[in-house]
Write a structure and sequence with these properties.
The protein is an alpha/beta fold and 395 residues long. The protein folds into two domains: 4-12 and 287-394, Aspartate Aminotransferase, domain 1 (Alpha-Beta Complex), CATH 3.90.1150.10; 17-284, Aspartate Aminotransferase, domain 2 (3-Layer(aba) Sandwich). It has helices at 17-30, 40-59, 74-83, 100-111, 126-136, 159-169, 270-286, 288-307, 333-342, 355-361, 379-394; strands at residues 4-5, 68-71, 90-95, 115-120, 141-147, 172-176, 195-199, 211-215, 312-315, 323-328, 345-346, 369-372. Helix 2 packs parallel to helix 7 (270-286), helix 3 runs parallel beside helix 4 and helix 8 (288-307) packs parallel to helix 11. The radius of gyration is 22 Å and the shape is globular. Mean pLDDT is 93; it is low at 219-232.
């Protein structure tokens, strides 16, 4: 029996052939250290790195490839985006469907006494979300940081409307695109996202070990904002979080004050970034809308089948993605996941690094089983999985 992979929210599998082929070719033929030397392998690596910056800038709606900063993963990207901007006494707003990659850094900054924070409630009613956010904005609110799409359910935050709100009030807007990049259309200029953090290994179908922050250069005059916020200039380059060599101005003891080198200390993951370039090209060729509809339709097919089963508990909040959770009555989530694995179905159980979303959904002491579809899943995967779940329910 062929393995059925339904854990794409963690990392997509399999990868497109183009990604595997070019990543391998890089390691075999031209994997030099970019920006460190003038020999041909270093130059070839640097050219591929820049090509990936350009492809990412185009995908996410900016004409500034230099504003694409490479990081190890989305968690690093979000930590940099948050900690490079925050100041003592700031106030931050996050949502109640956040992954720990936002929740933990913000909670830690609060524990140290650096910031305070509030949590707004997700809703499928955009006006309700905006009303809740507005009620929490203070004069020292400097950042709104939130996920675009939940990693445990179909909940999607109204990013465009929140971006407009942030622009109006001069608040720096950080978006976690871990579950939306490559699946939803994202335009940082139109959506007024100041820092978009995205992984390579999920919806962009790249290898693990690379991610990006895409910075927007706002033309907003902050003096016209409704409040006197901590950020008098959203365009300023933030503080460094990690320092080190990057091949630029090596005799200068300080990091450059421009993108991308300000945040790219140390050697970049060249083979992974080359794979990311091919992943982005594959996404563009396949079509984001096609990918989104395919994953969502598979999830809806399975959700509708599970709804007809008496001993299944579904945890739903919006149905805008290919991800949802369930439990089988009388079985904890880990047991169900193990039984599915025995049938060669890969899922994830527990709390998925998202306690806020689990609290909102009320999943209980053992969390839930997460199903997350990807581009390479088929309708037959739904049929086999449903038959397996029915057998588990009878056992």
């Amino acid at each position: 029996m062929q393995l059925i992979y339904l854990d794409n929210a963690a990392t997509t599998f399999p990868k497109p052939r183009e990604v595997i082929s070019e990543t391998s070719r890089c390691m075999l033929e031209y994997c030099g250290n970019p920006g460190r030397s003038s020999h041909s392998m270093s130059v070839k690596s640097a050219e591929k790195i820049f090509e990936c910056r350009c492809a990412a800038a185009d995908l996410f709606g900016t004409d500034k490839p230099e504003n694409v900063v490479f990081t190890y993963n989305t968690t690093y990207a979000l930590n940099i985006a948050l900690k490079s901007r925050v100041k003592y006494g700031d106030h931050i707003i996050i949502s109640n469907i956040e992954h720990n990659s936002i929740y933990r850094p913000v909670a830690e900054l609060a524990r140290r006494g650096i910031i305070t924070y509030d949590i707004f409630k997700w809703s499928d009613d955009t006006d309700s979300v905006l009303f809740d956010i507005k009620s929490k904005i203070r004069r020292n609110t400097s950042i709104i940081a939130c996920t675009h799409a939940s990693n445990v359910c179909g909940a999607v935050n109204p990013i465009s409307e929140i971006g407009e709100l942030c622009d109006k009030y001069g608040i720096y807007f950080i978006v976690d695109g871990a579950q939306s990049a490559g699946i939803f259309d994202i335009d940082i200029e139109k959506m007024k996202i100041d820092a978009l953090c995205v992984p390579g290994h999920k919806g962009l179908y790249a290898p693990q070990g690379c991610a990006m922050i895409i910075f927007r250069t706002s033309d907003q005059n902050d003096e016209t904002n409704s409040f006197n916020h901590a950020f008098t200039n959203k365009n300023r380059v933030g503080d460094t979080v990690i320092e080190g060599g990057n091949g630029i101005n090596s005799r200068d003891i300080y990091m450059p004050d421009f993108y991308p080198e300000r945040y790219e200390a140390g050697t970049l993951a060249v083979p992974n970034i080359v794979g990311l370039l091919e992943g982005i090209n594959w996404i563009k060729k396949t079509g984001i809308q096609n990918i989104h509809e395919h994953e969502k339709n598979l999830a809806l097919e399975m959700i509708n089948s599970l709804k007809n089963m008496d001993n299944i508990k579904l945890y739903l909040a919006g149905e805008q993605s290919g991800t949802f959770m369930f439990n089988i009555e009388g079985k904890d989530s880990e047991t169900t996941a193990k039984l599915l694995n025995n049938a060669r179905i890969c899922v994830r159980s527990g709390f998925h690094c998202s306690p806020l979303a689990h609290d909102m959904l009320g999943t209980g002491d053992s969390g839930a089983v997460r199903i997350s579809f990807g581009s390479f899943n088929k309708y037959s995967d739904v049929v086999y999985s449903m038959n397996t779940i029915k057998n588990i329910c009878r056992s």
